[in-house]
Amino acid sequence: MTDQPKCPYMTTADGAPIARQHALTAGPRGPVLMQDVALLEQMQHFNRERIPERVVHAKGSGAYGTFTVTHDITKYTKADMFSEVGKKTDLFLRFSTVAGERGAADAERDVRGFAVKFYTNEGNWDLVGNNTPVFFIRDPYKFANFIHTQKRDPKTNLRNNDMQWDFWSQCPESLHQVTILFSDRGLPASYRHINGYGSHTYSFINNDNQRVWCKFHFKTNQGIENWMDDRGAETIGQDRESHQRDLFNAIEKGDFPSWSVKVQIMTQEQADEHQWNPFDLTKVWPHADFPLHEVGQMELNKNPENYHAEVEQAAFKPSNFVPGIGPSPDKVLQARLMSYADTHLHRLGVNHHQIPVNAPRCPVMHTMRDGQGATAENYGGATNYWPSTRPDAVNPDEKFHDPAWDLGNSIVDRYDSAVDHDDYTQPGNLYRMFDEGQRDRLTTRIAGVLGDAREEIQMLQLCHFFRADPDYGQRIATKLGIDVSKMMPGATHDQQPVDATRNT
């Protein structure tokens, strides 16, 4: 968070000093006056100090830390955070339960969320996973339905085992995760004693633009510790925040928890031959076939200063990728790329990425503007559209382009919509349908507003008019006072000028 000098006295939210923290009344027993704006501000803020809780993973704990590279994996990925052994990257990690509301107890039998935000030099990378390597479903259409079974019955408002098992009995793909959930690992002793998994299959892309598939594993260096049901029930009766208390106190006294970060790697050739769909979220990759490769160490070493600002407002999005790390054809992951970003738009607003815990720690420039909570710290009055020839405009950089996906019957890539399209014949045909008066009025109107643009822009646009019809371009050029023959030697009234856009 931004360091600010500590104010020696109480103020309003706008910084005005407050002399007394008592209501302003007409006499000791009189009514409160509307002019007591400090009291009104406090009450108004109090009425709004809760934001919508997360639909899933509502109860959570978080901490800051550091990831340090210990092993070279640059042959697999060009991601900057893995670029050299010893490199450190700051991060924020949020643990959570899945099914319970914000007031739920920590020590319940449930999957644990394990979401990490890495503040890399090339943007934020969010890895949003769990303490299990698989999940209950492989079809994203079932996700919202599954979560409904984990919440409350719409009639009784009670958790309902019939709902849960009704769903699971209809979805045999859930059996792998159900087996883990009801095993001894289904009730962790603390957040410090669980593994984390990206669960989904992701992709690594190296400097040669070669893609491999990967899975992420975070192995706790504290060792796995779990409780039996009676210990969990006893703990809940005494402390509903047992995991939160354990994590906060451990970090506060300098007992920093850590995890060994490892990856599994699979080539496309191996994926084609694998006995299971490698993009199926209900399946693991056998370690005997795809061994774990250590990447680095992750340590949590700093508690948040304010839970609401930094933990409750932390926004993790699987769609936050950086160069060298990308998605896969995993259907549930594909749906989460939209779903998680969308829920933060609802909970925190369109500018949630400007909240300090979510803000990238690298230069940022885009054309998204305004909305509730906008600060404009990154872009000020910079150009807010693309493409543009303005001096302060920024452009995409082709060096960050990911290789295409070959899906057999189609190639997934970013195709230039301007290529292989005839954008001139139909406008030219329309122009030639106009009579003399219509052509004159059309070109007069265009020249009237195009004349306000820079000469560079006028020349670029004239190329388009000439391609549609030479007379179309010549009339506008004449009305702009541009001698095309001087600007482009060799051009005549019947010739089209050189395409100025091809060198831009």
Give a description of the structure.
The protein has 504 residues and is of the alpha+beta class. The chain folds into three domains: 49 residues, Cytochrome C Oxidase, Chain J (Irregular); 295 residues, Catalase HpII,  Chain A, domain 1; 79 residues, no CATH class. The chain contains 14 helices and twelve strands. Strands 1, 2, 3, 4, 5, 6, 7, 8, 9 and 10 form a ten-stranded antiparallel sheet that branches. A hairpin with a 5-residue loop joins β6 and β7. α12 packs antiparallel against α13. The longest helix has 17 residues. The C terminus is likely disordered.
CATH topology of the largest domain: Catalase HpII,  Chain A, domain 1
Task: Quickly count the helices.
Answer: 14
The rough form would be described as globular
What is the percentage of strand-forming residues?
Answer: 15-25%
Secondary-structure map with pairings?
Layout: H1 37-46, E1 60-69, E2 88-97, E3 112-120, E4 123-130, H2 143-150, H3 161-170, H4 175-181, E5 196-197, E6 202-205, E7 211-220, H5 229-238, H6 242-252, E8 258-266, H7 268-273, E9 293-302, H8 307-312, E10 325-326, H9 331-347, E11 405-406, E12 411-412, H10 425-433, H11 436-450, H12 455-468, H13 470-480, H14 484-487
Antiparallel strand pairs: 1-2, 1-9, 2-3, 3-4, 5-7, 6-7, 6-10, 7-8, 8-9, 11-12
Helix pairs in contact: 2-3, 11-13, 12-13
List its traits.
504 residues; alpha+beta; Cytochrome C Oxidase, Chain J; Catalase HpII,  Chain A, domain 1; 3 domains; 10-stranded antiparallel beta sheet; globular; disordered C terminus
